[in-house]
């Protein structure tokens, strides 16, 4: 009787497992038979899923593992997580530093993963969609391996500086994402206005145009209110006043230039960039290490973390699901290659052999002549997102009032990195 019960449970469990795997595969875009390679979309979605997993692991390391480092019985592991944090630091600073190092471990593992497979995708355009079970296992080994590596010098200050540079690049990438969303938003409502004019009569499309103007007004008013708040809260020194004034001036100039010179610009894209520039300015001045310039210096900025992770989430969603991602990434995308290879992936019967088996050398030559896809650019974007969420969760490496133990001036350096990335984004 027990044998029958065990067999029944095993059978039901197998059904549930296969159904779950099937649903997960369908969600990731792989709804084809096993004999057909997964689509380019599945590769993008699985990459995004892996990056999301790395973010969860980073939070577990930061808020679960690191605060209890002193309870670890293995002295080597405890020393590895606190190396580079200073010998005379307080217990609180040591835990914050260990938490930051935990974030760097997960982020670095994902960063190395995407760099490796970005290079692989550059050499072979289908690499991003293949062997994903093995890729997840590799990422797991990378995360586990980083646990035993001392902070100094690989993570603090090594990867910490890599993440700062990568975050600078992410700000520029995020600008393209916001512009793409704004262009699509504007174009969609203009199309709706044209359809309303065509189907419902003259003047019926004005409601969509008015909606665009109202949206622009809301975004501009929000930006202006935030700038006023920054003047009131952070206007205690020359640096902050200069940053806020430059943000206001450059946003106005960019709006005028886009509306008068560029034929493809719209007021909605200009408004979106103004709000983005305001956010970057606020993030920069919140990193100011001088007490008279930053009234919230001793407080943990939860809003900065929430907004920063929201920007990373926006980048993830755009990268994985946007229909315009392939076009924005540039080059020849994998989806196009899928269409070109349609006949090759669906062999036809021709005599005693399949058509694609009749000439073994023909497939290789045609494959070699194809343009390399843009999957490597996808991996590059995801690598910069790894850097951005690492800096967001660690406050750009700061662990005390004037920076972290590894570099006492880190907050000031991070402030300049953030504001300079804003200037470059606006100039572009």
Automatic annotation (TrEMBL):
<feature type="region of interest" description="Disordered">
    <location>
        <begin position="332"/>
        <end position="370"/>
    </location>
</feature>
<feature type="transmembrane region" description="Helical">
    <location>
        <begin position="132"/>
        <end position="149"/>
    </location>
</feature>
<dbReference type="Pfam" id="PF03348">
    <property type="entry name" value="Serinc"/>
</dbReference>
<keyword id="KW-0812">Transmembrane</keyword>
<dbReference type="InterPro" id="IPR005016">
    <property type="entry name" value="TDE1/TMS"/>
</dbReference>
<feature type="compositionally biased region" description="Low complexity">
    <location>
        <begin position="358"/>
        <end position="370"/>
    </location>
</feature>
<feature type="transmembrane region" description="Helical">
    <location>
        <begin position="208"/>
        <end position="230"/>
    </location>
</feature>
<feature type="signal peptide">
    <location>
        <begin position="1"/>
        <end position="21"/>
    </location>
</feature>
<feature type="transmembrane region" description="Helical">
    <location>
        <begin position="48"/>
        <end position="66"/>
    </location>
</feature>
<feature type="transmembrane region" description="Helical">
    <location>
        <begin position="273"/>
        <end position="291"/>
    </location>
</feature>
<keyword id="KW-1133">Transmembrane helix</keyword>
<comment type="similarity">
    <text>Belongs to the TDE1 family.</text>
</comment>
<dbReference type="GO" id="GO:0016020">
    <property type="term" value="C:membrane"/>
</dbReference>
<feature type="transmembrane region" description="Helical">
    <location>
        <begin position="102"/>
        <end position="120"/>
    </location>
</feature>
<keyword id="KW-0472">Membrane</keyword>
<feature type="transmembrane region" description="Helical">
    <location>
        <begin position="303"/>
        <end position="323"/>
    </location>
</feature>
<keyword id="KW-0732">Signal</keyword>
<protein>
    <recommendedName>
        <fullName>Serine incorporator</fullName>
    </recommendedName>
</protein>
<feature type="compositionally biased region" description="Basic and acidic residues">
    <location>
        <begin position="335"/>
        <end position="348"/>
    </location>
</feature>
<feature type="transmembrane region" description="Helical">
    <location>
        <begin position="242"/>
        <end position="261"/>
    </location>
</feature>
